[in-house]
Amino acid sequence: MIAALILGLITGSFTGVICYRIPRNESIIFPGSKCDRCAVKIAFYRNIPVFSFLLQHGKCHRCGIKIKRSYFILEILTPVLFLILYFSHGFSIIFFYKAFVYSILLAASFIDIETHIIPDRFFIILLITGFLYSVLRNNPENWFLGAASYGLPVLLLYSASDFINKEIIGFGDVKLICAAGGFISYSGLKNLLWFYEILYISAGIFSFFLIFFRKRTLKCYVAFAPFICFSVFISEVYL
Ligand SMILES: [Zn+2]
């Protein structure tokens, strides 16, 4: 359990690095982390997930610029998720597979929130690992059926955007849902409908509150990837 927790803390911290560097086209391995404003290098003892953020009150130790709270949220969410996975699967291949997929989905969510773009490489990585895993489990047809059935409704919705000249859903979301469908795999029309209901209801409620509290207007962009991530999780755990 401690191992799952530590693995989650490290992965969450690394996912934060990915979320910061991929949209900026920087290498995700080198150099080490540095502050956004004063460029001071962050020593390893100041780079301990969760604790460093709390000890430094979410600020850079030299210049005092605020570190984005989203990294802190990632550093909390990932270990919690890893613990849930550990309790349901132990340290098995399925644990590592799911931990990997959810980390990618979380990274896609946070990048979508910040930049309104879901990088293609996430979709490609998810498709490849999903396919390889299904081959390993001897049921690639389930993976394919999942990707096709979950992807089709949003693909139709996306095509419909052309006719009414208004973007209902981004193509990045379509691709992410398709890859997520392969991950969930097809298990009946009822579960498929549930997935879409959770997706649209959660996104709808969230948008309603944003508009209600006047933080956004109807025309604003709301990142869809976090809701895809949430719906995948609910579908996976409860359906
Ligand atoms: Zn600084």
TrEMBL record:
Q: Name one GO cellular component term.
A: plasma membrane
Q: List residues of the Prepilin peptidase A24 N-terminal domain.
A: 6-87
Q: How does it sit in the membrane?
A: Multi-pass membrane protein
User: Where does this protein chiefly localize?
Assistant: membrane
Cite the entry's keywords alphabetically.
Cell membrane, Membrane, Transmembrane, Transmembrane helix
Localization terms from the record: Cell membrane
Q: What is this protein called?
A: Peptidase A24A domain protein
Q: What is the lineage of its organism?
A: Bacteria, Fusobacteriati, Fusobacteriota, Fusobacteriia, Fusobacteriales
Q: Which Gene3D superfamilies match?
A: 1.20.120.1220
Any one GO molecular-function label of the UniProt entry:
aspartic-type endopeptidase activity
Could you provide one GO biological process annotation from this protein's UniProt record?
signal peptide processing
Q: Which residues form the Prepilin type IV endopeptidase peptidase domain?
A: 100-201
Origin superkingdom: Bacteria
| Family that this chain belongs to | Belongs to the peptidase A24 family.
Specify one Pfam family: Peptidase_A24
Keyword Ribosomal protein assigned: no
Listed transmembrane segments: 70-87, 118-136, 142-161, 193-213, 220-238
